[in-house]
Amino acid sequence: MAANLSKKGENIEGKERERERERERERRGRERGGEGREREGERKERERRESESGAGSRERGERWRARERVKGVERAREEREGSALSQRARRRDERAERASASLARKTLALYLSLSLSLASCSLSHSLSLSLSLSSPLSLS
């Protein structure tokens, strides 16, 4: 039994089992995509217990690195989603621009067609009027 006690008289095996359970909880949380992050109150309570029991800074450092990894994964996912959103917006803008250009071309074609028709009618009317005026009128 003396082999299971640290210099301060603490149970080494119990602490090791607790650390293993904590690592397993963090691993399951990472597998679920960061949903398993511990709540703020639980984290503070655990840190208070560790500081009272004299737990080493190595374990705190490991947990800090694990939290930072989770944050990094979340940040990368948000950036990917953000870039996907911006790509969709860019494609939507390009489609709107093409539709606008197409509408402008159709409007210009219609305008030119109407102008040409009006010019044709005007010319035809002018010709018929000049022909009717130039032909000799019979007064008898």
What does this 3D model show about the protein?
- With 140 residues, the chain is an all-alpha fold.
- The chain has a domain at 48-113.
- It is 80% helix and 0% strand.
- The protein has 3 helices and no strands.
- The protein has helices spanning 12-31, 40-53, 57-134.
- The radius of gyration is 42 Å and the shape is rod-shaped.
- The termini are far apart.
Gyration radius from CA atoms, angstroms: 42 Å
Count of helical segments?
3
Along the chain, the helix and strand elements come as: HHH
Main sheet overview = none
Query: In terms of per-residue confidence, which ranges show pLDDT below 50 for 5 or more consecutive residues?
Result: none
Termini separation (Å)?
A: 147 Å
Task: Kindly state the percentage of residues in helix.
Answer: over 70%
Integer average pLDDT: 79
Indicate the proportion of strand residues: under 5%
Sheet/helix structural class: mainly alpha
How many strand elements?
A: 0
How would you describe the shape? rod-shaped
Based on the model shown, name its key terms.
140 residues; 3 helices; mainly alpha
